[in-house]
Design brief:
With 137 residues, this protein is α+β, with helices and mostly antiparallel strands. It has one domain: Aminopeptidase (3-Layer(aba) Sandwich). The protein has three helices and seven strands; from the N terminus they run βαβββαβαββ. Keywords: Transferase.
């Protein structure tokens, strides 16, 4: 039986997952965010092994999630969706009015499933095209 648990974690626990899942070709330190210690971080544990992470930051009642990442060998199994549902519910409990992210263009279909819509803000960084996506809560 597969056991999944999501809980708040210390910021540095996100770095290995971010690196392996998102930017394995870049130096390890490139996945550390300057404001990591100001955020709220969640880890998805699959059978007691940290498998996915996401980081939340807020400015008043507007929240941004960053670095949603699931280990490559467990992707496409619904764990990213479980993390996304968890942070949407968390933001609602916190009385957030909006949740947004810088989404990789090749992943925007994933965010559409959760009610996010594209804005007209796009950019290119670290070899990827991004679009700002947001959801009213």
């Amino acid at each position: 039986m597969t056991m999944v648990q999501i809980e708040q974690i210390f910021p540095s626990l996100t770095w290995r997952i971010r690196h392996e899942a998102m930017y394995p070709e870049l130096p390890f330190d490139s996945v550390k965010l300057p404001d990591d210690f100001d955020g709220i971080h969640f880890g998805l544990y699959l059978n007691h092994k940290l498998t996915g992470v996401v980081s939340l930051f807020h400015d008043g009642d507007v929240y941004q999630f960053r670095k949603l990442a699931v280990l490559p060998d467990t992707q496409k199994a619904g764990y990213g969706s479980q993390l996304m549902a968890y942070i949407i519910n968390f933001c609602k409990i916190q009385k957030a009015t909006k949740l947004w992210c810088n989404a990789r263009v090749n992943a925007k279909e994933f965010y559409f499933k959760f009610g996010f819509h594209e804005t007209d803000k796009t950019f290119f960084k670290d070899g990827y095209d991004f679009v700002v996506m947001e959801k009213e809560l």
